[in-house]
Structures are given as C-alpha cells and as structure tokens.
Model the fold of this input.
Amino acid sequence: MGRVEGKVALITGGARGLGEATGRLLAKEGAVVVLTDVLDEEGTTLAEDIVAKGGHATYLHQDVTDEAAWAEIMSTIMGAHGRIDIVVNNAGIVDDANVEDTTLEGWRRVNSINSEAVFLGTREAIKVMKAQDPKGGSIVNISSIAGLVGIDNLAAYNASKGAVRLFTKSAALHVAKSGYNIRVNSVHPSYTWTPMVQQLGDNTGDRDEFYKALAAVHPLGRPGIPEDVAWGILYLASDESTWVTGSELVIDGGITAA
Done:
C-alpha cells in the first residue's frame, strides 16, 4: 500500500480494460485518480466504485483526439488538485484489418486515437509538470507488442503503436536534457483479455477458441489479464522508477522472446 500515495494521476481510456485496472490499482496504492473516457456511464460507475472502496477517483468526459479538450482537462485537474504527477496515455482502439483491407478512414481513426492523442497527452502533461512546484512527474504511454513486431492483420494498429514507442523515446530525451524532472516510458503488452481483445475474438466467430489459441502461443500459457499490465504501469508511475526513462516495458507472457 502507498506506492503512489498522494500523487495525482490522469488515466485516459479509464472506463474499462487496462484503464480500469490501472485506475483501481493506483487508487488502492494511494493516488488521487482522474479517469477520462467517452464511455461516460461506465467511467462514472467505476469512479463511484473506487470511492466506495475507500479510494479517491473522479471521472471526466474526454475525446483524446480533441486538442482543445486536453487543455481543458488539464486546467480542470489543476484547479481541483493543484498538480498532476502521473499521466497514463492509455486510450486506444483496434482495426482488425491487413494492409490491403485497411481503409484510409480506418487508418486515420486508429492513428488519431492511438498515436496522435499520445502526443497531445504527453505534450500537455509536460507543460503542466515542468511548471508545477515541485516540478516533475511520470508519463506512461501504452504501446503494445505491436509496437515491436509485425502482426499481419493489424496494419494501422502496428503503425500507431510503433509510433508511440519511438515518440516516447524522443520525448524522454527532451525532458531529461531540459532538466524538467519528468520521466516518459512506454508499456508493451501482448494480447490482454480486455474488451478490445475480446472483440478480436468475436471477429473470428468463436471467442473461446480464440482464447485457447492465444493461450497456446504465449510461453506462459495464457493471454494477459489487465492487472498484469497495471502492475507494470504502477512501477513506472511510482518513485521506485526514478532512474527509468525512455524505456519500453514489455509485459507479454514471453511471446516476443522466441
């Protein structure tokens, strides 16, 4: 308990999946959590449940592709809490399509949410974190093993997550050399049993068989659960990782080790 005690954390895509697990864990470890999403009913219910269990959480509606909305969200959080210590750029979608089947509309939508929004969130977090007293903070950008290796039916997703990986390193170097006391890292999960991955399973026509297939290809014998990833995010968000920046934390059941 208390690994992020008193820190203020913003988690995008916080209503379910990885965002939900991360919000619950950071709140349990003492953070004041601000969840944002477009899934207002689910996000509100989650924040209320965290509070009912003794944590500190609120929910705000946010379209992460809206540049102006980012400034408004940051202003709201600063007005309520006076600082922002942790930003987890988690919001993401998937387009189950190979390069031939990917439409330009689909490509742009995936990249706007998965890549451009990470840029916006990182830029706005830096603006706040470098100016607060004491200055500093931790930015955690959620990429994927699709940011490390190719997956034939996820062309746009591959591109978006690869962009997050290298953008994170660029941002990390900039803030380190600028002396802002801000760390920026990326997290690279493999297939984790979230609503997004379950949707991929539904697209195959047999979710149960899809799950079995995922279990078979991961050396540890199962796909991930959201909490597997949340524990890694907690480490990067906490002061336990004060000498870690520009890194890529792979949480993948061993699948990329082969």
